[in-house]
Amino acid sequence: MTNNNDQLYITKVINGDTNAFAYLVDNYKNMVFSLAFKMTKNREEAEEISQDTFIKAYKNLPNFKGDSKFATWLYRIAYHTSLDNLKKNKNNNNTFEINEITFHQIQSAETILQGIARKERSKVMDKCLQKLPTEERSVIWMFYYDELSLKEIIEIMGLSEANLKVKLHRARKRLLTIVKDNLEPEMIENYGRK
Amino acid sequence: MGENKHIKELDAFAKKYVKEIEQEQPSFDFTKNLMQKIALESSLKVSKTKALISKKGWFGVVLALIATLCISF
């Protein structure tokens, strides 16, 4: 299941070529760092978590069976290392209440977002994503940004399929609520024009 | 039906706009620093587990002992 290039470098590392690990690090460092950063919201902590993740992966590489993709296996380590860090630092989550979403609100948020330049839109969305509780933020990031399948996320987070689907739906609704709240003045103006 | 459409629209919304978020990158020398750390840990591991007398060494000691015994009798 692991891509051939990854497997080639994994075998090299297991056979004692430590430097071959750099290939795997270069390939996956952005993915690992982004997840850690999204979860902790702190660059220094994310950097440390990413280092720990790769060191753990290096030490446990002989135990990697190749049943799943190397990326999924690594993602799992990164996710749990980030969670441990959050527990250690007791980062508190301020939860946003989920309001009922209407079609009009979705369309209205889209209209506003479309009117913003892409770079600015990306910042607005990132800011809104940061306001989600850690677990929901992680689910959204894995599913929509890294495009992991439900099966892969289940493997990483250790959730049941039903539980994951509920979390995903709740996360989407909460995200839209946050976006809506952030764009509220523009939305009211937009509504008034209709 | 309405609820399903609702899920679909939210899904389309998230798909479209989350993907636009820019991915953060670790520090420029992340790989270099990490590989130095790994190299250090590997060398520590090797020196920790390395036996003072190797298998070949023990074989030589035993052989020398047997030879000494043979010569003395």
Blueprint (SSEs and pairs):
The complex is a heterodimer of chains A (194) and B (73).
Chain A: H1 4-14, H2 21-40, H3 43-60, H4 70-89, H5 103-114, H6 118-130, H7 134-145, H8 150-157, H9 161-182, H10 184-193
Helix pairs in contact in A: 2-3, 2-4, 2-7, 3-4, 4-8, 5-10, 6-9, 7-9
Chain B: H1 2-18, H2 30-49, H3 55-72
What does this structure look like?
- The complex is a heterodimer of chains A (194) and B (73).
- In chain A, 75% of the residues lie in helices and 0% in strands.
- Chain A contains ten helices and no strands.
- Chain A has helices at 4-14, 21-40, 43-60, 70-89, 103-114, 118-130, 134-145, 150-157, 161-182, 184-193.
- The longest helix of chain A is centred in the last third of the chain and has 22 residues, at 161-182.
- Chain B is mainly alpha-helical and 73 residues long.
- Chain B has a domain at 28-73.
- Helix content of chain B is 75%, strand content 0%.
- Chain B has helices at residues 2-18, 30-49, 55-72.
- Chain B is rod-shaped, with a radius of gyration of 32 Å.
- At the A-B interface, helix 2, helix 3, helix 5, helix 6 and helix 7 of A face helix 1 and helix 2 of B.
